[in-house]
Inverse folding.
């Protein structure tokens, strides 16, 4: 069992529904985005190529963040999820500089106390922000709460209008993600770093 | 589940319908302890299938916006202006409604036309006519106008549709011109993106995107072809020339069987009619004579080409007239206009013709249909121009020629509501043209009554952008009254109309403004009284807008109890109608706009609440057992359209659709006659039966000092309305390069010495704005492209930029710059750039 | 791939991203750790109890203080000791703890005690680890190629020795500590030698980093051409190494306390800035390296 995600760059239209769905699911405050879609533009007019590249925590099998974490706050679960125990993290940010994908976010002190409209939180913010702690590092959790509740989709894959993000078990050769990786030649980002990411890109 | 039972639960998912754009995706909201903590697409709905765009996700932002209007408000600062604090004080509903009613009643008693109306809630089309019931003909806004005065009427004229889309399920070669379908905007975005991705990736559909800026669609396309703004018609006409004159490709069977391409046309462009019975005539090649269109004839024998003498009158089949009208539209000439090489025009025409598989059939649900898997889809970018009507007709023509209208794989009409396409019998075996699906046409008057002059645009949609000029210069067209009050409902004329300084002058003139909305905007900042509406997550509505894949009503239900002391806008307007004294008119209108069956008609003098109205509407459409309670129990009544509903709607009723648009010509001639009789000078030259290129287009004849084209754009994050004041959306777009400034091509920028971050003065012949330069390769070298997300200046704290670039200020707003045929305003302009700071 | 890849800040654009978290306070911690442990090691050899004490205090208060100020959750600092098996941060905390315990214990144990020598060796080794573990910490991070070089710990070691030497020289000239005659002659030469060595290592580092791939190259460009070139060449190289070297060679330790003070300040400024700038220029690789840009 190893949860992973396939991102089909052919399908992604850069709408950022995943970015916002993720914020909504996790109650992420200003500036905190576990996932986002990057533009990658090359060439000169009129021969321009523009790709939309969603990025998120890759839940690497050999995760540098787990290795460098001095507290054990960052850990790897049996099912492949790389998670941060909010109660253990001391905020040293060694994981931040160790993550080749630059996908870890440090929550500055006071960050969880302030919403989009200042210190007075909206009812939604008042419910969601206390789920966070400040002074620690956060990142995409592969929607662990959803997964543990038995759902089969993360918030971003659930909403992705293009079905460009697909979640599943990459250890199961018959899963949709595994079949896509095989048939379309899925590639892992920065595979030269030997981190063995659980996110595969199809292009 | 009953509403009261549902909201009594501690933790539940409530199904409802989204309203973060004008369309409707089915949603479900997760509510915990009375707080909405997540909105997702409804996985059970066949339309969006659980998918939701970023704006839909951000509905939570709108619901819990602390700047929502929470109670009725009264202005205490008499001074009004941009950025001026109105010093709102909360007042009771009674005070707010009685003050408003009193003011409007006195206006109405004096002259109801002194009320300007800006009611633009696209989800509640049934209330748009409130102004008309009041007695005011005005439309002081631009909503439907902007999206398609040239688009919707031409769809209605072609096949009784309101919108149109290519067939996601079967198209194999999709040309998309100035449209965001399947990527960033337009019909049911979340549903469309998935279907477009499936077509592209699963079925290998080829996509060609034609537009001056590389949108998300162009980025995903197999080919991006950049045109000058307002010249897409030239590109398409060049394709048609290639098909007719060089490739000799057209679907003769389709044109003979399903269009008026066979009708004989006289030299003056009018139909040849049998003098005995006034019927349109067709040339029968078997007997070499003209015959009535409905005479028994082998379809092969109906002439499409040639020139004939009938009783001494020279005439040609309409198809021949089309061909002859385009004889000088060579790819070379069109290339000069649109900046796409002649070779590219020819190549695309060839690929398109080949892909259309003319002559092939497909069997769906056991029924055989013609199969034309190539189609041109287009939207506002292509037609939002002077001569936009002709633009739209050209796009239709390129589809008609390959016989792909309303057939699998082709270009499909999309209805305005649950009625789908409105197919009624017209003249000469044709479908009746339906240019007026939103409201009945304004009858001609010798002097315009409405400030938007709808009386003089017989097939247009209200050109609201003309109001300000006519109000400020009433003598020009002879208005003998001046507006005194304005009612705004979910609209923002100050922001969405062009020529903003003039609009501001109108606002300054008005003695009383009342606004109904959720959050204040550039316009309602000027109001005297504000009445809080319920948000979409707090109110009931049956809704079905321009749905391309499903039919039936979505049920928008309150997912929580209303947060504040708001009232449903329908209820507010009913209450005001009663207080002002025109309730019978209003109820009569609702009977019509809510599709109420006679047994559910409203009594003239009784105020009906929105819930009662919704219940009657549901029962009228679905029968007595399917009222509001049914919807509360079962949710949406939507299902996928069946092939027999999607395809061949006119043909199924034995009616032809136009390929030669004589209806438009006839309307133009009629208008011309009336204008001449009234002693008015009025240009009706754009009412043409065949779309041609006209060099007179003002956009391409501007003083060369304005050396660049300028246009505005939106993407998925800012599709339609209600975007930039939502923090999640604002946060995302403030990280996206295309929304960070004025896009200018790298080579052009270099030649002009412009760098990213420079502050530009952008001057058009009509106005001036400043903007931050953003050098990019994603735009045509002769253009600047301006995101609509950098245009806000309301008092709302979210979404404002250091430098506001409000594109509309650069646009003209007068008759010269309005499409004569449809009333569409010109949405592109010409500018010159000066660097004012680095 | 190559020069056209942009250096991106918060924009949603694929490109190089600068690390933004490790900056002033981490650089301060590195600085105090190296200067303090360098001074401590030198002082053990001299021997100078005061030097040892100052060294320990610099590490404890300077390095420890900077870390505590930096940590998002300082009260959980002890949790950082949990993973010495894999995490250099844990190893650093352990080394600091050992250095403190053994270092302060040296004050309690008489110099002629049999315990003193092993304790001193242990303290010196701990201090040495404190001086160089940041180098390993940076090297072990695969994300930022310019840090990913074996020269990092070497550079840390030499900077630590240089810092310690400078501090000892400073304290001796200001008569805070007493040096034996041989040390008095040795120190200025050691200083010059270490300055030359550091200059060479920095040069080697620069040459080596040209070939650390496109992201390393982006870092390199930031350092020698970009916004950090001025502080790098003026403060880290000019003031910290060249000026100090020239002063040491031509003025020398004999030119008086003013000169020594100047050398010390210049050396410390250079020392702080070299690591500060090395942190600042940390650039991540673009995520999808395989996509053609």
């Amino acid at each position: 069992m190893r949860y992973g995600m396939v991102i089909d760059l052919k399908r992604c239209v850069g709408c950022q529904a995943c970015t916002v769905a993720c914020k909504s699911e996790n109650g992420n405050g200003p500036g905190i985005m576990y996932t986002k879609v990057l533009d990658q533009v090359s060439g000169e007019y009129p021969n321009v190529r523009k790709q939309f590249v969603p990025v998120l925590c890759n839940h690497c099998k050999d995760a540098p963040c787990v290795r460098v974490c001095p507290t054990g706050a960052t850990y790897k679960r049996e099912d492949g999820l790389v998670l941060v125990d909010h109660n253990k993290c001391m905020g040293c940010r060694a994981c931040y500089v160790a993550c080749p994908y630059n996908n870890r976010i440090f929550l500055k002190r006071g960050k969880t106390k302030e919403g989009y409209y200042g210190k007075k939180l909206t009812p939604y913010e008042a419910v969601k922000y206390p789920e966070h702690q400040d002074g620690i590092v956060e990142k995409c959790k592969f929607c662990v709460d959803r997964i543990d509740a038995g759902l089969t989709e993360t918030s971003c894959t659930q909403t992705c209008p293009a079905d460009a993000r697909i979640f599943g078990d990459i250890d199961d050769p018959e899963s949709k993600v595994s079949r896509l990786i095989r048939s379309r030649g899925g590639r892992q980002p920065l595979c030269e770093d030997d981190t063995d990411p659980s996110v595969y890109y199809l292009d | 589940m009953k509403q009261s039972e549902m909201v009594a639960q501690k933790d539940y998912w409530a199904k409802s319908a989204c309203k973060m754009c004008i369309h409707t995706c089915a949603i479900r909201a997760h509510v915990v302890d009375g707080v909405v903590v997540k909105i997702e697409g409804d996985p059970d709905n066949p339309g969006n299938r659980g998918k939701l765009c970023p704006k839909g996700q951000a509905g939570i932002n709108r619901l819990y916006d602390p700047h929502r209007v929470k109670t009725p408000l009264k202005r205490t600062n008499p001074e009004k202006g941009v950025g001026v604090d109105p010093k709102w004080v909360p007042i009771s509903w009674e005070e707010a409604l009685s003050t408003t009613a009193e003011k409007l009643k006195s206006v109405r008693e004096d002259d109801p036309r002194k009320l300007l109306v800006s009611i633009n809630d696209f989800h509640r089309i049934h209330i748009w006519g409130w102004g008309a019931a009041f007695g005011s003909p005005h439309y002081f806004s631009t909503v439907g106008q902007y999206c398609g005065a040239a688009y919707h009427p031409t769809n209605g004229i072609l096949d009784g549709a309101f919108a149109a889309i290519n067939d996601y399920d079967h198209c194999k070669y999709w040309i998309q011109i100035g449209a965001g379908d399947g990527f960033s905007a337009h019909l049911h975005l979340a549903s469309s993106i998935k279907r477009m991705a499936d077509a592209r990736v699963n079925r290998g559909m080829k996509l060609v995107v034609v537009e001056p800026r590389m949108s998300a669609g162009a980025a995903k396309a197999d080919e991006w072809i950049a045109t000058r703004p307002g010249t897409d018609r030239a590109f398409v006409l060049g394709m048609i020339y290639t098909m007719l004159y060089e490739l000799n490709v057209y679907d003769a069977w389709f044109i003979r069987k399903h269009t008026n391409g066979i009708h004989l046309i006289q030299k003056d462009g009018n139909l040849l009619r049998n003098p005995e019975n006034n019927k349109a005539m067709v040339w029968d090649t078997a007997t070499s004579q003209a015959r009535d269109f409905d005479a028994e004839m082998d379809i092969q024998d109906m002439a499409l080409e040639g020139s004939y003498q009938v009783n001494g009158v020279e005439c040609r089949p309409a198809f021949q007239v089309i061909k002859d009208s385009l004889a000088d539209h060579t790819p070379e000439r069109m290339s000069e206009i649109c900046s796409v090489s002649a070779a590219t025009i020819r190549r695309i025409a060839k690929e398109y013709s080949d892909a259309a598989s003319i002559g092939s059939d497909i069997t769906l649900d056991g029924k055989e249909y013609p199969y034309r898997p190539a189609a041109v889809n287009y939207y506002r970018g292509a037609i939002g121009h002077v001569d936009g009507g002709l633009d739209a007709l050209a796009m239709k023509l390129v589809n008609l020629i390959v016989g792909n209208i309303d057939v699998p794989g082709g270009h499909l009409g999309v209805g305005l509501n649950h009625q789908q396409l409105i197919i009624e019998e017209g003249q000469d075996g044709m479908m009746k043209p339906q240019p007026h699906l939103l409201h009945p046409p304004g009858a001609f008057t010798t002097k315009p009554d409405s400030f938007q002059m709808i009386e003089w645009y017989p097939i247009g949609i209200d050109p609201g952008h003309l109001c300000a000029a006519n109000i400020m210069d009433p003598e020009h067209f002879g208005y003998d009254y001046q507006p005194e009050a304005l009612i705004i409902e979910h609209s923002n004329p100050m922001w969405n109309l062009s020529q903003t300084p003039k609009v501001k002058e109108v606002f300054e003139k008005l003695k009383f403004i009342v606004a109904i909305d959720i959050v204040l905007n550039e316009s309602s900042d000027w109001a005297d009284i504000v009445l809080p509406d319920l948000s979409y997550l707090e109110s009931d509505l049956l809704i079905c807008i321009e749905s391309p894949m499903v039919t039936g009503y979505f049920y928008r239900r309150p997912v929580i109890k209303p947060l504040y002391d708001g009232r449903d806008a329908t209820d507010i307007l009913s209450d005001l109608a009663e207080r002002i004294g025109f309730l019978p008119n209003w109820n009569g209108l609702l009977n019509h706009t809510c599709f109420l069956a006679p047994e559910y008609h409203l009594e003239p003098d009784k105020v009906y609440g929105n819930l009662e109205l919704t219940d009657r509407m549901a029962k009228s459409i679905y029968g007595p057992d399917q009222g509001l309670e049914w919807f509360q129990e079962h949710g949406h009544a939507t299902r996928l359209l069946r092939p027999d509903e999607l395809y061949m709607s006119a043909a199924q009723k034995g009616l032809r659709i136009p390929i030669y648009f004589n209806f438009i010509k006839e309307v133009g001639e009629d208008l011309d006659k009336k204008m001449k009789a009234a002693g008015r000078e009025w240009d009706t030259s754009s009412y043409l039966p065949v779309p041609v290129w006209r060099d007179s287009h003002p956009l391409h004849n501007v003083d060369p000092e304005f050396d660049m084209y300028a246009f505005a754009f939106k993407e998925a994050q800012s599709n339609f309305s209600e975007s930039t004041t939502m923090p999640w959306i604002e946060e995302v777009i403030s990280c996206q390069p295309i929304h960070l400034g004025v896009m200018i091509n790298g080579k052009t920028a270099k030649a002009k010495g412009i760098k990213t971050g420079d502050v530009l003065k952008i001057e058009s012949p009509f106005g001036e704005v400043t903007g931050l330069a953003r050098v990019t390769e994603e735009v045509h070298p002769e253009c600047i492209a301006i995101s609509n997300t950098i245009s806000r200046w309301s008092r709302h704290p979210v979404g404002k930029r250091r430098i506001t670039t409000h594109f509309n200020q650069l646009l003209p707003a007068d008759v010269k710059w309005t499409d004569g045929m449809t009333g569409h305003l010109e949405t592109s302009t010409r500018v010159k750039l000066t660097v004012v700071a680095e | 791939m190559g020069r056209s890849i942009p250096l991106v800040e918060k924009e949603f654009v694929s490109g190089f991203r600068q690390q933004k978290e490790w900056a002033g306070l981490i650089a301060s911690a590195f600085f105090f750790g190296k200067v303090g442990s360098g001074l401590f090691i030198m002082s053990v050899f001299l021997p100078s109890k005061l030097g040892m004490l100052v060294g320990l205090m610099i590490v404890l208060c300077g390095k420890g203080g900077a870390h505590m100020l930096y940590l998002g959750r300082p009260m959980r600092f002890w949790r950082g000791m949990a993973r010495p098996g894999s995490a250099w941060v844990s190893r650093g905390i352990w080394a600091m703890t050992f250095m403190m315990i053994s270092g302060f214990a040296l004050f309690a144990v008489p110099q002629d005690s049999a315990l003193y020598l092993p304790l001193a060796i242990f303290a010196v080794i701990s201090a040495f680890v404190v001086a160089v573990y940041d180098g390993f910490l940076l090297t072990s991070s695969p994300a930022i190629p310019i840090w990913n070089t074996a020269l990092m710990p070497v550079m840390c070691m030499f900077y630590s020795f240089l810092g310690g030497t400078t501090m000892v020289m400073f304290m001796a000239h200001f008569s805070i500590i007493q040096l034996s005659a041989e040390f008095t002659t040795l120190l200025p030469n050691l200083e010059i030698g270490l300055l030359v060595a550091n200059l060479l290592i920095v040069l080697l580092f620069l040459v080596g980093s040209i070939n650390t791939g496109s992201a390393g190259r982006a870092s390199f460009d930031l350092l020698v051409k970009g916004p950090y070139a001025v502080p790098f060449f003026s403060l880290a190289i000019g003031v910290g190494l060249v000026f100090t070297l020239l002063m040491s060679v031509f003025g020398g330790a004999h030119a008086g306390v003013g000169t020594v003070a100047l050398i010390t300040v210049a050396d410390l400024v250079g020392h702080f800035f070299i690591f500060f700038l090395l942190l600042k220029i940390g650039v991540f690789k673009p995520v999808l390296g395989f996509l053609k840009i």
Chain B has a mean pLDDT of 95. The domain at 3-63 of chain B is CATH 2.20.25.90 (N-terminal domain of TfIIb). DSSP finds 29 helices and 32 strands in chain B. The two ends of chain B are 61 Å apart (CA to CA).
